[in-house]
Amino acid sequence: MKARVDITLKNGVLDPQGKAIQHALGALGFDGVNDVRQGKVIELQLAGDDRAAAEAALKEMCEKLLANTVIEDYRIKVL
What we know:
Elements: E1 2-9, H1 16-27, E2 39-45, H2 51-66, E3 72-78
């Protein structure tokens, strides 16, 4: 089974990479971009077909390794 984890900085946490992207877009002529927040996407191929077990395992993976839960939020999607 395939899963996807989207990780983004929490609201209120400064995002210097997002600001750099916003600035670069403006320099390229893309006006009207008021804010940019960047994040990361992790795709995993999981064994088995138990959706509830997969979601529980993914949550544990995020809490222990994939996301820094002090400054990042994550969303899990089992595809």
